[in-house]
UniProtKB/TrEMBL annotation:
Catalyzed chemical reaction(s): L-serine + acetyl-CoA = O-acetyl-L-serine + CoA
InterPro entries tied to this protein: Hexapep, Hexapep_transf_CS, LbH_SAT, Ser_AcTrfase_N_sf, Ser_O-AcTrfase, Serine_acetyltransferase, Trimer_LpxA-like_sf
GO MF terms, alphabetically ordered: serine O-acetyltransferase activity
Keyword Phosphoprotein listed: no
EC class of the enzyme, as a word: transferase
Native source organism of the sequence: Azoarcus sp. (strain BH72)
Gene3D superfamilies according to UniProt: Hexapeptide repeat proteins, serine acetyltransferase, domain 1
Superkingdom to which the source organism belongs: Bacteria
Protein name: serine O-acetyltransferase
GO biological process, one term: cysteine biosynthetic process from serine
Length: 282
């Protein structure tokens, strides 16, 4: 995307069909190190076959030839095990790796340079007509088995962890994991200006482990301060003149700022589990 805000690729003013198909084939070499030749990609990659079939089916669908579009989509599903509705709007350089069990609904919108792995579903949550499937921004990577459900917006450069279930909007430059998916990492941006795609979606942080480490560090700090106060109290009692007077030790307030993770706020530690609720992507 040319702006940080979500801006879907215009399906009408884009390049021609054959130009899109060439880009779909060429982008494979940047995202799958196993790809060796164009002929190999054209003849053995079911994900590429599914995308190429969708380009044709979508062109028929836009021209009002609904049944031929559905028929092409059906035949593609039979041969590739990838089910993409011909009404779905898909941007440039779209890649489905492994191409097994992927489902893309009718009103789904997908930006440029998006990568889906096997088992991904872009599904709806209602039987009502109208917009009911998700919108994905540019450079989004969706891990194997992930489900993105409903008319929600996934911002640019978002990474969705494998087997996650996303049911809320996700702002740009976030990593989400879990059921339901929660933001576990915030970077701005995940991609640098010269990067085309970031496939490090498997490098997921451990927010629960990090939170526990923060708690352990805080406990150690409190124990250390308590031991210091106890030693000072004993020294004060020993130094008291006879007859001994009760010594009232005043315990100062513990400074919580050094290890305060600002849980559930925008200032939260980006590695902790206590992240703020994802706001609507704009």
């Amino acid at each position: 995307m040319k702006t940080e805000s979500m801006s879907m690729t215009n399906p009408v003013r884009g390049p021609g069909l054959f130009a899109l198909l060439r880009e779909d084939v060429r982008c494979v070499f940047g995202r799958d190190p196993a790809a060796r030749t164009v002929w190999e990609v054209l003849t053995t990659y079911p994900g590429v076959h599914a995308v190429m079939s969708h380009r044709i089916a979508h062109a028929l669908w836009r021209r009002g030839w609904r049944y031929p579009g559905r028929l092409v989509s059906f035949l593609a599903r039979v041969f590739t095990n990838v089910d993409i509705h011909p009404g779905a709007q898909i941007g440039r350089r779209f890649f489905i790796d492994h191409g097994a069990g992927v489902v893309v609904g009718e009103t789904a919108e997908i930006g440029d340079d998006v990568t889906l792995y096997h088992g991904v579903t872009l599904g709806g949550t209602t039987w009502n007509p109208g917009k009911r499937h998700p919108t994905l921004g540019d450079h989004v990577v969706v891990g194997a088995g992930a489900k993105i459900l409903g008319a929600i917006t996934i911002g640019s450069r978002v990474r969705v962890g494998a087997n996650s279930v996303v049911v809320k909007n996700v702002p740009a430059d976030r990593t989400v994991v879990g059921i339901p998916a929660k933001v576990v990492k915030r970077e701005s941006p995940i991609l640098s200006a010269t990067d085309e795609l970031n496939l490090d979606h498997h490098v997921m942080p451990d927010p629960v482990g990090h939170t526990l480490n923060c708690l352990l560090d805080r406990i150690k700090m409190l124990e250390s301060e308590l031991a210091t106060l106890q030693a000072e109290g004993k020294a004060a009692l020993a130094a008291a003149s006879a007859p001994p007077k009760p010594v009232q030790t005043v315990f100062p307030l513990i400074n919580a700022n050094p290890l305060d993770c600002q849980a559930n706020t925008d200032a939260a530690c980006p590695e902790c589990a206590c992240q703020p609720e994802a706001q609507e992507a704009r």
